[in-house]
Amino acid sequence: MEEQEEPIQNLWQEVRDLTLGTTTQINHLSSPPTPLHFFREYISPNKPCLISNAINHWPATTLWHSTRYLFNTLSSSTVSLHVTPNGHADALTPHPNSPSTPTLCFASAEVQHIPFQDAFTRVLNSGLSSNCVGYLQQQNDCLRTEYGALSKDCDSDLAWASEAFGCLPEAVNLWIGNEMSETSFHKDHYENVYAVVCGEKHFLLLPPTDVHRMYIHDYPAANYRYSQDTGEFSLKLEEPVRNVPWCSVNPYPSPELKEKEMAKFPLYFNGPRPFEVTVRAGEILYLPSMWFHHVKQSPDSRGLTIAVNYWYDMRFDIKYAYFNFLQSLPHSMLCSPASFGKLGGNSEDESRKGNSAASANDNILDDSDAAAEK
Q1: Is residue 31 packed enough to be buried (19+ CB in 10 Å), middle (13-18) or exposed (0-12)?
Q2: Which of 18, 134, 170, 305 supports an S-S bond with 199, CB 3.0-4.6 Å?
Q3: Mean pLDDT, the chain, whole residue set
Q4: DSSP 25-57
Q5: Residues 6+ apart with CB under 8 A from 152
């Protein structure tokens, strides 16, 4: 068993040694890359980066700080407001039919279609006078549909990214929320270019090779229902039953639950630390396809965070095949208690990993020289 565990656990560190770096920071570019540089250094190796000075020319970077401008521009628009009791949509929560046991389900927000001004006001007031948290986050190309009147304030695509990906974005989405909205760990089958216009977004990132550390399990799907009369939420399981594979790890457990969570998910808490990225207003995060990400946000002076993201189709190529194969390996092979103490590594392990990384780097240099000759 230990012989089976070791190669997969070594993979987590070797990916960092060879490609991603061994700190919790990602590369920060001071200006947009050329398409060729972006493709070679980030898309091809499936590596995230933070980019500054890429959206300074957008009218949105000044206009969207004005609530009056947003109200006037979207005065006749009906939008989709996602409401939850705590700001955690598409997240795990206690099963409604077994409140006394630790069974969980996958809960989605109630979606209300209401005038923009009403929806915007409810986002601003979220959590202040009720247990209802609103988030404008319809992920269906909403900037070019529901919020079409605002789309002129942003680029329809990012030229350097579109050329590198070889296509235009499939969807462009708008996100408006406050500090209570939080997104649990998950991954997307899209190349994500994420621009923050107002406020800040705080990402935790893990590469696809760390899939076993996410403890992905199937959970029954449920939906929140909000009563305008009582101001209370109920949670109803979908019928027929539909199971959703979802990450089980909460990276920010409460102090009273932290020890229990660390014991329950040792591969996450004892393994390499996730990459930490704060995306400030005016900055862009390139989030490669299949990367696991958890998102929190800090608002601007109004109490809002506003962002735009471009979803580009991912290539279902050999990397996707590798990741799928890795995910198919039984999770149980990594769950031997004897292995947990080794996740942080020791001097002998680090020496061996260093030799392995050096050997792999030699091979990469050889391959690069061969490619250059061709």
Answers
A1: exposed
A2: 305
A3: 88
A4: --EEESSPPPHHHHIIIIITTT--EEE-SSSTT
A5: 59
Mean pLDDT in residue range 175-188: 96
Residue listed under structure tokens 């500090």 = 179
Kindly write down the DSSP assignment for every residue of 212-225, as one continuous string. GGG-EEEEEEEEEE
Q: What angle do CA 312, 208, 287 make, to 5 degrees?
A: 35
Determine the Cα–Cα distance for residues 119 and 14; give it in Å rounded to an integer: 47
Q: What is the pLDDT of residues 11-37, one digit of tens each?
A: 999 999 999 999 999 999 999 999 999
Comparing CA positions, the residue from 288, 215, 332 lying closest to residue 41 is: 288
CB 268 within 8 A of CB 254: no
Cα–Cα distance, 329 to 179 (Å, whole number): 37
Q: Among candidates 59, 8, 3, 81, which has minimal Cα distance to 197?
A: 59
Scan for tokens 């909460």, then name that residue.
Answer: 250
Q: Which tokens go with 103?
A: 């069974």
Look at residues 278, 344, 322, 314 and name the one whose alpha carbon lies nearest to residue 12.
344
Which tens digits make up the pLDDT trace of 59-81? 999 999 999 999 999 999 999 99
DSSP state letter for 315? P
3 state DSSP class of 176: strand
What is the token pair recorded at 54? 């890429």
Residue 152 has a CB neighbour count (10 Å cut-off) of: 10
What is the rounded distance in angstroms from the CA atom of residue 269 to the CA atom of residue 261?
9
pLDDT at position 231 is 87
For 198, the 3-state DSSP assignment is strand
pTM exceeds 0.85 for this model: yes
